[in-house]
Write a structure and sequence with these properties.
about 85% helix; transmembrane helix; membrane; transmembrane; 3-ketoacyl-ACP reductase
Length: about 30
């Protein structure tokens, strides 16, 4: 696997984790 592919996969997973974390935070601490 090329370095660019690894970086792309890593960034997409990171965004997924951050998005999920923000959604969970909004559900727990939201209105």
């Amino acid at each position: 696997m090329s370095l660019l592919t690894k970086i792309t996969v890593y960034l997409s997973l990171l965004m997924l984790v951050i998005g999920g974390g923000l959604a969970l935070y909004a559900i727990v601490y939201g209105p």
